[in-house]
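Lab manual, section 2.4: Encoding a predicted structure.

Procedure: take the sequence of the chain (257 residues), apply the prediction step described in section 2.3, and record the output as structure tokens. A sample record is shown.
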Amino acid sequence: MSGIMQKIQERLQSYRVPGYYKKYDYRWTMVIDLDKCNGCQACVVACYAENNLQTVGKDNCGIARNMSWIRIEKYYEGEYPDIKVKFIPIMCQHCDKAPCEIGCPVFATYHNQDGLNTQVYNRCVGTFTCATYCPYDVRRFNWFTYKRDKPLDQQYNPDVTVREMGVMEKGTFCIQRIRAAKDKAKDEKRPIKDGDVTPACVQACPTGAMTFGDLYDPNSRVAKLAKDPRRFYLLEEKNCGPNVIYLKRVMKDGSKA
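Recorded output:
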């Protein structure tokens, strides 16, 4: 039995090593143009509806128990009366070198062949380790088993599980839509084309600030936007290797911020 346990430990350790996967099948990436984002939060509402997120109410939000997978951070620059209001959407960055993967004691979060940082909910024991290790503060904990009164329970998306009390959760780039696109492409015996996968947040964005696609595809919109000189990563100094790219705003005087 000790020999089997040793092999299991070696296998788990190999998964935790950054760069274990020498090449992903896809490299799903999100590009967000901050010059187009007006902070309307349509992406937040769409994410709630698509991924069966629970609305916890004002009191729980007041003690940091909100469940949103995407949040719009509003911040100010300058001094009164010359104050500039800016917005930045923040979600799971799907880091290549994800700290949450290293910290999880039960291997509930790992990197898959699509280049995504995924979460196995029925393996999670709610230790908060992943949330503690994450520098972006995008992990959420289910303090209760939230339920919707009838007929609102019919709003649940049948393609997504309804998480229960005691598990950590985070954004997934709408992995259910990615899988549906992969299955359709497999049935049609072709690779996934650019535009086949559209996460709910990208679909709902009225200004087209969000773009999603495969970074490995040189002809994809994401790959072209990733070469924009305005590009930057959030907390790049942490060296997490995020798969979310932001494009700086262009101010009236031509400067970038």
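Check your result against the sample. The chain has one domain: 2-247.
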